[in-house]
Amino acid sequence: QDIVSGESEEESNGVNLMEFSDEILLHILSYVPCTDLVLNVRRTCRKLAMLCLDKSLTHTVILQKDYKVNKDKVKQLMRDIGKEIYQLNMAGCYWLPSSTIDHVTRCKNLVKLNLSGCHVTSLRLSKMLSTLQHLRSLAIDVNPGFDASQLSSECKATLSRVSELKQTLYTPSYGVVPCCTSLEKLLLYFEILDRSREGFMLSGQLMVGESNVPHYQNLRVFYARLAPGYVNQEVVRLYLAVLSDRTPENLHAFLISAPGSFAETGATKNLLDSMARNVRLDALQLPKAWINGSGLLQHLKFNNPFYFSFSRCTLSGGHLIQRVINGGKDLKSLTSLNLSGCVHCLAPESLFRKAEDDIDSSILESLVVSCCNLRHLNLSAAHHHSSESIGNHLCQLLSRLKHLLSLALPVCSITDVAANVEKPPTASNLVPQTFGRKVRIGIQTYPRNLADQANQKIESSVFWALMGSLRFLETLEIIGSSFSSAMPRNEPAIRNSLPPCVRAQSVGDSEVAAISQLTYLQSLTLAQLPNILTGSGLINIGLQCQHLRTLSLANLGMMGKVVYMSALMDMLKHCKCLRDLRLEQPYFCAGAQFFQALSHCSSLQRLCIVSRSGTLQSDAVMSFMANCLEVIMCHMFTGESLTICKNLQQSIVRSFQADRPALNVVIFPLLHEDLTEVIRDVPMRHLDEITLFKSRVAEEPPNLWW
């Protein structure tokens, strides 16, 4: 009856979807998942049956984050349009059984294939690649048990033609790299743990029979990202050893992202010296120990650089301007810059400077003028304090970067200096940010709509003006310079946190309200904003930022109480497009009211709650999971007992796993000694994108992989 009434309404209005041109219909259909197009939509009528098989829709098939796809759907999809697929992305489809990969052999014309995060054995990989003679781009995982000797000659012939390879290593191995003799782009992700499940220390030595040498002579892009651990460092040195012998002449991007200390060796020094003599780079990222105290940057040559990362380096602003920007050289080609943790990058020198000293605005101005086309900028994890000079505030200078799409700033950098000088510290500023005895303070009443905020004249603040000038910003991170998550990667949960910067003490609700000007905002991270009193600014964001898909909130306001709970619940009622929500807050109560509000987020797919001494209500969680049918990830690390956590996790899996094949549930006490063992079983896609807290702006070069 609804369909009939809908058709009659269309006829009365003179509008019929099928009367649109093929071009318009193809554009509309491009937003529909391919599995729905082929298995459902094309069966509705003859016209759609023809359009759904158009080359523009079947050329590239993306199953990544299509959490409803299962083995049978993939089988049917490959059977129907396998020969028409040229690019297939199955990255992160961890829930599909390894036998699903067998159906990829139907895609005889594949040029690009992404199987990162999928279960693929050596034998299955060999069988599949033997049939894909046109393949030029491949992404796979190398897991324990991988044996390159099981690869057939036909498989190796295919690999010899592959020019782009992305390889995630969970075991010390060269993987398929030695077979790829035509490599132009090599991306390596090292995720090898230092200890086995049984507690044995692992070695970085390669397995027997893996002494083949990689072929780098045609290499243009080399990228390596290391997870914490000494084994990862040992293995990456084996990959770099070949590069140090002979540097590829066409190398234009060399990037190594390594946490902690990754010491330079004689081999790596030879490699860098060779690069300085023989290549001109367009993208550069090196471990901090390779840059600190060396004159390397002075000798490296750049062509038209589009990406620089000096994350966690002690590089001073003087060196940055002189050696990288060449005293103000035109760098319009630079689109992405990561200076996260580079504490002296906006100061002329670092020898006698304290990290909390004021920045030199002339350095930032030179950077802004020279790199006027920046789209991604990360200045987080440092104290960037502006002076009292009029017109030279960091926010005022950054407002000139009209092309910015993503921005990460420390909380203390957005403080209005003049306002801080005029106003003495308030009672809320003096509240200690600890877990000790609570201090009772008067709560200032903040208006809950944008018009009332305007009446308070907060538009005059430099941060308000910055947000108003960056109207096309899609990703924003405001993170306390001393913030550290309670859930590091391979260590026990952190029990204590450092206090926020003194300059950050005044940052609170009005600054959060200013963010609501970003109409196109898709991802927002707020961490360690000490002066949040009611969270009223969150409501403004919920009302105005209707494209918001990812929200991460951590340690807002007083640490002993969740003061913004009411505002958060009001905000969530308006977040219809929200897909990922991460909350990290001590004493967070995940009860019935919270989950009732969260149920308004009809598009929500992933939820992560990290809360020391936090509580949860099992019945409310179950009701929420039943109401929100799109949720496929539920991670909760609280103060509840192990028994309660296990029972709830089992109940969720038992009730919803059958209808949600991608469902991943981890509910575990935050301070339990076995937390790291539980974390290692979380699919890398969830772990890297939401469960672990980190700054993601300019983390990698844009469009590093398709």
From TrEMBL:
One of its GO terms (cellular component) is SCF ubiquitin ligase complex. Residues 74-663 form the F-box/LRR-repeat protein 18 LRR domain. InterPro entries: F-box-like_dom_sf (IPR036047), F-box_dom (IPR001810), FBXL18_F-box (IPR047948), FBXL18_LRR (IPR045627), LRR_dom_sf (IPR032675). GO terms for biological process: SCF-dependent proteasomal ubiquitin-dependent protein catabolic process. Residues 22-62 form the F-box domain. Gene3D superfamilies: 1.20.1280.50, Ribonuclease Inhibitor. Transmembrane segments: none annotated. PANTHER family: F-BOX AND LEUCINE-RICH REPEAT PROTEIN 18, F-BOX/TPR REPEAT PROTEIN POF3. This is FXL18 protein. It comes from Sagittarius serpentarius.
